[in-house]
Write a structure and sequence with these properties.
Blueprint lengths: L6 E7 L3 H12 L4 E5 L5 H5 L32 H14 L4 E3 L3 E6 L6 E5 L2 E10 L6 E2 L12 E4 L13 E5 L3 H12 L4 E4 L3 E2 L4 E2 L2 E2 H7 L16 E2 L12 H6 L3 E3 L2 E5 L2 E4 L3 H26 L17 H4 L4 E3 L5 E6 L3 E2 L5 E2 L11 E2 L2 E2 L4 E3 L13 H23 L3 H9 L5
Parallel strand pairs: 1-2, 1-6, 2-3, 4-21, 6-24, 8-19, 9-10, 9-19, 10-15, 11-14
Antiparallel strand pairs: 4-5, 5-6, 7-20, 12-13, 16-17, 17-18, 22-23
Bound molecules: flavin-adenine dinucleotide.
The site of flavin-adenine dinucleotide (FAD) has 34 residues, from helix 1, strand 2, helix 2 and helix 9.
Length: 431
């Protein structure tokens, strides 16, 4: 497709949920804009994730305010393709000006005149403003400890699709956040022997006293936390909407046959060593789980709500052998491991954005998405304005703020002083 537009007020890069939300709010504010997407709308939900993935939050929660999932029960968990369809339908609803199949290659500030020059796979665009909505999770990260020259298949969770894709044999899954634990569970259900390396994590109950954890985090103000608590930078969240939505309980997984190990420390050829912190990590996860039950009980009490008691939520599985006698070293070859899956997270890549909007470590410098380089905006960053920022419902609210800022800036630039106004009034009216 040829990009005909050569000048646009605001260019949005990326048409995932962030780009779609941005377009909706810019449309409402009357800001002329264009969204460029290198693949398809919500591509990462279609091809960037494993086949069986469903949303981690229920359909009543993981959506934008302007549209419900008409074919998923409010308490159900939409399949990933359905989530992608949802964003396509959403974009159609307000006729979002999205061009797909166009990659933005570079953005540079103009010298001596306002705006930016944007090189794309389909030509050059001049834009007054650019919103980078290219996602919180762009480049798979595999840590440097990954063993070299070993006879294992090693993939990142971003490349995992289904159990049939893996060779025969046991699997070591490194990382037990939502991706790692869901993949490990799927592989174990498919009959594979699974070793799961568990680091620091939060694990809220899927639901407690008839309310999903998304509801609890909402009413308890946790989604709105402005910044990560110090020291919690490496704490993942282990939740799942799979199989109708179940609380992640690591001991239960172990009782089903999974082997839990601590944080992966290093490799010496085929021999992996694990940190002696499995018990500590599980204990901290339990504390997080119990803290949410306590906070929920207190909320119910304070507000006099009539929600059923749920004493079984405090039932604890006995410690399995892999917890009482943690494995600190494992010869993967002898254990029959043929695959390592690195569920170790993602980094961002803004190499195309050649502007002064980054700190020394390459992180975007911004306030609620308004960057330190005037005219450049970010959307969809983790913790952009709050804990919920990189999630479906959160990005919609951040987009509103960014659109407001853009509309306000346009108002300043539209301002004409008295002499300029006189000029406009007197100019070409009479011949
Ligand atoms: C496994 C997994 C499960 C998740 N589940 C949930 C969930 O259940 N609920 C929830 O709320 N959140 C979930 N998230 C978090 C978040 O909602 C998703 O990561 C979501 O995809 C982020 O949307 P986004 O629009 O910010 O970024 P993306 O979906 O990553 O979209 C960015 C878009 O930008 C495009 N792009 C990138 N670079 C360029 C370029 N140079 N030019 C043109 N286009 C470009 C990409 O092709 C992509 O389509 C999940 C994340 C992961 C990894």
């Amino acid at each position: 497709m040829t990009v005909e537009t050569t000048k646009i007020d605001t260019l949005v890069v990326g048409a995932g949920q962030a780009g779609v939300a941005m377009s909706e709010h810019l449309s409402k504010q009357g800001v002329p804009h264009l969204v460029l997407e290198r693949s398809r709308i919500a591509e990462r939900w279609r091809t960037g994730r494993w086949d069986s993935l469903v949303a981690n939050g229920p359909a009543w929660h993981d959506r934008f305010p302007g549209l419900e999932f008409d074919d998923v029960s409010p308490d159900g968990f939409a399949a990933k393709e359905r989530v992608a369809d949802y964003f396509e339908a959403y974009a159609r609803k307000f006729n979002a000006p999205i061009r797909t199949g166009v990659e933005v290659k570079s953005v540079e500030r103009n010298v001596g005149r306002p705006g930016f020059t944007v090189h794309t796979s389909e030509g050059v665009i001049e834009a007054n403003r650019v919103v980078a909505a290219t996602g919180p999770f762009q480049k798979p990260v595999i840590p440097a400890i990954a063993p070299q020259n070993v006879p294992f298949t090693q993939i990142h969770s971003a490349d995992y699709r289904n159990p049939a894709q893996l060779p025969e044999g046991a699997v070591l899954v490194v990382g037990a956040g939502s991706s790692g634990v869901q993949i490990a569970d799927e592989l174990q259900r498919a009959g594979k022997q699974v070793y799961l390396s568990v680091g620091a994590h939060d694990r809220p109950p899927r639901a407690y006293r008839n309310r999903d954890f998304c509801w609890w985090l909402g009413v308890l103000g946790e989604w709105d936390q402005a910044a990560m608590k110090p020291g919690r930078e490496h704490v993942t969240i282990a939740v799942s909407g799979a199989h109708g939505g179940k609380t992640i309980d690591f001991r239960e997984l172990a009782h089903r046959g999974m082997t839990l190990v601590g944080l992966t420390h290093s490799f010496d050829g085929a021999v992996a060593t694990f940190q002696p912190n499995l018990v500590e990590n599980l204990t901290r996860g339990d504390e997080n789980y119990l803290a949410l039950l306590e906070a929920a009980d207190a909320y119910i009490e304070r507000n006099g709500l009539d929600l059923p008691q749920e004493p079984e939520a405090r039932r604890v599985f006995p410690d399995p052998e892999c917890v009482t006698q943690p494995i600190l070293e494992l010869d993967l070859a002898k254990a029959g491991v043929t695959t390592i899956i690195w569920a170790t997270g993602f980094a961002v890549d803004y190499s195309w954005l050649k502007v002064d909007a980054f700190d020394a470590s390459g992180k975007p410098q911004h306030q609620r998405g308004v960057s330190s380089e005037p005219g450049i905006y970010f959307l969809g960053l983790p913790w952009q304005s709050r804990r919920g920022s990189s999630f479906i419902w959160g990005v919609w609210h951040d987009a509103k703020h960014v659109a407001d800022h853009i509309a306000t800036q346009r108002k300043y630039l539209d301002y004409r002083d008295a002499s300029q106004r006189r000029e406009t009034t007197h100019s070409p009216v009479s011949a």
